[in-house]
Amino acid sequence: MARVGILTGGGDCPGLNAVIRAVTRTAINNSWEVVGIKNGWRGLIDKDTMPLTLASISGILPKGGTILGTSRTNPYKDESDLQKARHNFKELKIDALIVIGGEDTLGVANKLSEEGFPIVGIPKTIDNDLNATDFTFGFDTAVNIATEAIDRLHTTAESHHRIIVVEVMGRHAGWIATYSGLAGGADVILIPEIPIEIDKVCEVINRRHNRGKTFSIIVVAEGAKLKELKEEVTQDKEKDAFGHVKLGGIGQVLGKVIEEKTGYETRVTVLGHVQRGGSPTAFDRILGTRYGVRGMQLVMEKKFGKMVSLRGNKIVAVELKEAVAELKTVDKEIFEIAETFFG
Ligand code: F6P
Fold first, then answer.
1. Residue 192: partners with Cβ closer than 8 Å, 6 or more residues away
2. Does position 121 have pLDDT exceeding 90, yes or no?
3. pLDDT confidence of 236, banded at 50, 70, 90?
4. Across residues 300-329, what is the average pLDDT?
5. Is the CB of 276 under 6 A from ligand 1?
6. Which in 6, 33, 147, 327 has the greatest CB count within 10 A?
């Protein structure tokens, strides 16, 4: 019987279980066996696996997280890990591996694929910054959570005549900030793509006050940088296996400066991992399911080195190397629409 392996790597994301379920159902319907590799690339290095059957995927569609577990392991960081990963790929006797991940996990998938391993990628990240696809699953859920938070913060900001700074996720790209800010009616949106000019932010707040608005909502992506500093605000200087620092804190920095410069009382809310946890939206369940079914079809068609992608309303196959070549930053057109409502 043909065997397919599947792993989930990087930060978790609502909709991962929908993909795992869709791959497994499609595989079993076509008489393939499915091997779940636990905790991302760590499971391939350690040969830590579990069988995926109809019983094991039953009821997982609405569940957040990933039943396989995840990690930010980078096998290319350590030569002995890489040897083990290559060795176990063969030992597991899998005919193909489906890798669900973002830029880092799929970056590893692309390298292994270039070495000749049969791999198909599925795009995942709440940040929506993966190239070669219109949307990654998980993004819609994160945007909905952030939008609900902004709605709630609006009422308290208005009652107390305060400025509220909401820090959302988005390491290199401000997709969550832009979409949730647009949906939630933010008065200013600050993203990593555009350095923050603090005087301009205060100008917008003052303009609102001058026309009688005594509150403002500022949405900031965690990766946004102050123009003067040119660097992100980080929690510490430690880097993960892919060289990323732990972001967080720009909201507090901004809140303090805004209060000092405008004289208006300011509060800061950091949404953090709340945006990544819990049940996926219907959109993400459907997108994850479509990606999973098509991903397994690509395996059966032996179309390796590809990634499934959403283009318009169609699921297509693109080159994995195209997906990891560069990051997809926020579309100018959508940001300009959001800007219409600043101030
Ligand atoms: O890559 C997705 C993401 O949620 C980023 O927005 C964020 O910077 C990062 O992961 C947080 O990673 P961790 O869960 O390891 O703290």
1. 170, 171, 172, 173, 174, 221, 223, 224, 225, 232, 329
2. yes
3. confident
4. 98
5. yes
6. 6
Q: Is the CB of 15 under 6 A from ligand 1?
A: no
Atom of ligand 1 nearest to the CA of 169: 6
Task: Determine which residue's CA is closest to atom 2 belonging to ligand 1.
Answer: 11
Task: Let me know if 127 is a catalytic residue.
Answer: yes
Q: Which tokens hold the place of 199?
A: 């005087």
What separation in angstroms does the CA of 115 have from each of 103, 108, 208, 309, 311?
Answer: 18, 11, 57, 23, 28
Give me the residues paired with residue 188 across strands.
218
Which residues, 6+ apart, have CB-to-CB distance to 138 below 8 Å? 13, 14, 15, 16, 124, 125, 126, 276, 280, 284
Q: Domains in the chain and their CATH numbers? A: 3-137+280-323 (3.40.50.450), 142-276 (3.40.50.460)
Closest CA to 233 of 222, 244, 221: 222
